[in-house]
Recover the amino acids of this structure.
């Protein structure tokens, strides 16, 4: 046995899991391996780093809300600079869309989640750069763009530096004596019979088998438990085992802008203490804008769904054309300040999309725990998910989340999965 | 528009869907295409053709029970020879496994499903070829094989000729005026904006888009609704669209035997009216045996799970070694009559495994309906699933299954999915 627990993947889910695995059982040898040269280099650090508490699913809310409290603890008590900026999330909706949101908002309101509803006039006054109405714009009408009638502002929502978060887990984990080996690629999970007979061809179908570690480019690593936490790459390890990763990889792109004419978006009063535009979601197309306070820029993303293929890409690239000849047409109608503005930077990563219910899975299998399917919200749920992995490994029925709330571990599993499908997916 | 409804896939789900689409709306032009030269040539006709009513999930029960009644109707009233043999399903269990089955059996009993419980002595008496006890067999003990303490006999269970079933739907469909074009491969679904603007690059992310047909090796085929029913191949059409197929392909193999020493299995009195062994499932390894009455042979399969990879194979092959150096070790301990018996024939197909809840999905998307994820039990649920597809296409809330029972169409969808995870998966 090379270690007690082998964690594959030094992204945010792997490192959070490793940290709690070590913290909850300090005598155990916990080793993290990652194919890249540093933490979060797969997709974690490429994330927009948004976080929110507005979810319809109770489990999603609990995962995110407790993780956000953890962010605050990490900045205030542990002294890391996570660029934790509670700028809020602002959903812009047409009246028709707002009607479709009523059930979701009722669930969220009943939970006591802080939010504000803004009317069209409020929005026009507070965000002078925003066009809410296309009555005078034949072209926008022709494009079929939705007007903006209502704004929903989520208050405990905002932005975090995903890279800094990942590094905080890395540092806390190694402080406890946890080990990380970078540039180490898991190539295959090792499946062995529980009772080895030393007959060629094992494991046979009639034997109980379990995962006992992984083959890596640096040799075999054996462990009592192997935690698979490598996001979209998980399928490369799990498919050969015939174990479902409950997710499909989908590319998502970010474009960053820094132009004097966008200054207005960094000067929006009354929606957050920073006086900037909240992370803002345009109607229908799910185009997102986020002021990045640390660099005075605006980040733009788009939650494209139907038409954007599934499939693992080794090195996904942003497509400038996707901005200039696609998103731009709509964006410039809502925010004319983007006219002729080109991105100064762009990059792409992949979401691990669980289309079934949109909620992460934490699934045990003999000798193994798989955590994944976070559907693009792994960062904002990372702390809770790491605790759930550790609790599952210790055989505990419940995990204690930051702040003391508890969650049944099996709820996020498959056999006794107990979650409601999330309605507010971005 | 080339047709009203284009059904991709002339397997059992595609043809059943096509039949009900046409039957429920005879004025519509319904066209089925398939890459192969005849019906069911993908995986349908490779199936073992087992059917059963023992399911824990109410939906699964309803789908199967009504479809089995349809089989009976097709033979008795429509005059097709489906080789519909109600030989029963016999699960052999150890006491420990039986304890694990208690909850499932209670659900099934409460539903009124006919079954019998047989003790070890009953089993030994009725099936002289079966070894229930390994007390005198050190090797079997060493292998860790489970003893047989209990048998659960499902009565409304048995075997059907999958090929004949597929052909019955084909014939009934064409009788109604439905059209089928073989050797026609759908290469790509065509996604277009609902409101076309004739601007290059459509559909844009900010447009509503819908499927309007498929590109095939014989040209484009446009339709108001495209039904994707091509089993494991569905992912080749759906992944590029970024639409989840909610299944992973997994190879399953069948081996056929015809040997004088297996005659005993074709002469088992008291478990069904045919006086043969029921479709029998060995403990734990899920090795299955099925007497194939029409050819006087025994078919053998194995529901291998962990260790059998996921992944689409164009032409999956049976592995003789999988029988001789794997299944055989256990098989011959339970049924010594298999000693030195080699398969006379073998073949392989692929299951479309939905690991999430084990239940088929019928999912709408603009311009499209996807039916799949039947997890190896598509044949025994085909009639109900075809009716659900047709009801969904007509915008009906409920589908009427054969015999008059009704099912909410949305229950099998994703957004408002309402099914219990199946516990009795083979």
């Amino acid at each position: 046995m090379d270690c007690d627990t082998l964690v594959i993947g030094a992204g945010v889910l792997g490192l959070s899991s490793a940290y709690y695995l070590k913290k909850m059982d300090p005598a155990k040898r916990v080793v993290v391996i990652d194919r890249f040269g540093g933490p979060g280099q797969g997709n974690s650090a490429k994330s927009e780093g948004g976080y929110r508490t507005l979810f319809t699913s109770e489990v999603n809310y609990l995962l995110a809300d407790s993780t956000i409290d953890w962010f605050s603890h990490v900045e205030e008590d542990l002294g890391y600079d996570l660029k934790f900026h509670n700028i809020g999330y602002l959903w812009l909706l047409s009246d028709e869309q707002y009607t479709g949101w009523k059930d979701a908002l009722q669930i969220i309101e009943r939970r006591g989640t802080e939010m504000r509803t803004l009317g069209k006039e409020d929005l026009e006054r507070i965000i002078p750069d925003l066009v809410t109405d296309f009555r005078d714009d034949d072209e926008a009408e022709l494009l079929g763009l939705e007007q903006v009638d209502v704004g929903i502002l989520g208050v405990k929502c905002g932005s975090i530096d995903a890279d800094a978060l990942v590094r905080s887990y890395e540092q806390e984990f190694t402080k406890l004596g946890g080990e990380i080996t970078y540039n180490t690629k898991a190539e295959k999970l090792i499946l062995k019979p529980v009772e080895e007979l030393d007959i060629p061809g094992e494991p046979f179908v009639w034997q109980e088998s379990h995962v006992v570690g992984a083959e890596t480019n640096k040799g075999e690593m054996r462990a009592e438990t192997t935690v698979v936490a490598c996001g979209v790459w998980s399928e490369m390890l799990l498919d050969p085992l015939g174990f479902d990763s409950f997710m499909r990889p989908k590319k998502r792109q970010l474009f960053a802008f820094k132009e004097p004419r966008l200054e207005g978006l960094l000067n929006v009063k009354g929606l957050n203490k920073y006086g900037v535009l909240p992370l803002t979601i345009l109607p229908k197309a799910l185009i997102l804008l986020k002021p990045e306070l640390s660099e005075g820029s605006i980040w733009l993303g788009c939650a494209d769904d139907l038409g954007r293929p599934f499939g693992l890409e080794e090195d996904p690239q942003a497509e400038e054309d996707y901005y200039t000849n696609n998103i731009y047409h709509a964006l410039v109608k809502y925010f004319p300040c983007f006219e002729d503005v080109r991105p100064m930077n762009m990059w792409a990563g992949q979401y691990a999309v669980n289309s079934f219910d949109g909620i992460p899975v934490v699934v045990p299998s003999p000798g193994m725990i798989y955590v994944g399917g976070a559907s693009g919200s792994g960062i904002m749920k990372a702390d809770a998910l790491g605790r759930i992995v550790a609790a599952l490994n210790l055989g505990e029925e419940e995990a204690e989340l930051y702040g003391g709330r508890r969650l049944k571990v099996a709820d996020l599993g498959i056999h006794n999965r107990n979650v409601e499908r999330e309605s507010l997916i971005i």
Chain B touches chain A through 53 residues (CB under 8 Å). Chain B has a mean pLDDT of 96. The longest helix of chain B spans residues 58-76. The domain at 89-155+251-348 of chain B is CATH 3.30.9.10 (D-Amino Acid Oxidase; Chain A, domain 2).
